[in-house]
Structure prediction request, 251 residues.
Amino acid sequence: MITMATDGYDAVLLDIEGTTTPISFVHDELFPYVARSVAEFLEARWGEPEVQAHVRAIAEQANKDVAAGIADAVAVDLAADSAEEARRKVLANIEWQMKADRKIGALKDLQGYMWKFGFEGGELRGAMYPDAVAAMKRWAGAGRKVYIYSSGSVEAQKLIFGYTTHGSLLGLISGYYDTKVGAKIDASSYAAIAADIGLAPGRVLFVSDNVNEIRAADEAGMQTVVSVRPGNTPIGECAFRQSSDFMDIPL
Ligand SMILES: [Mg+2]
Prediction:
């Protein structure tokens, strides 16, 4: 049981990975979905304007990579290559970058775009810890507003919570924040979120597995609980409250 040192809170701000959702979710489910379906996806949707916009971004990045001497990069000439040739080269660039777990704009944008089809088509489901779902329902039912703050884009957050292993949870959530509001380890981000919600930081409870994020929220004046889940980085002794079952967090 966690004892709260304060007189409650009006809103809860939740991290996703390692908090509501297993930390391995993105690597175990979202990335493999793209890896196994990207070839077929490009073939089926190559002519679509939105797909072509992603193709142009991937090609532009690939040509920069070739110029920079990156060995695996394959040059793409969208004006000269046949559609089939261009598709093969674009795919080769996507595949090496995914194997290298590269975090680069063009690839991340395409991954996010493809996830939408995976969630909407029923092949992907947002993995949720049952106690996180129960606690979200309990908070919302008791008039505590629930917000999400994740490094994944707001669009991706809405997909994860819109299509979960427990159905859609969008009705429980009052708002979403990503790193457009600021980095998760900066206190100013939490101050900005509290201001946007319209509450004093002290009336917001932030839950995350990452102690650096917890420290930043604490510095901004928020209440905090560290999420302890299987597979999370062990945090050992720390000055912050911890929870492995969110139903134990007092209202
Ligand atoms: Mg996390």
About this structure: The two ends are 12 Å apart (CA to CA). Residues 25-45 form the longest helix (21 residues). The chain has eight helices and six strands. The mean pLDDT is 95.
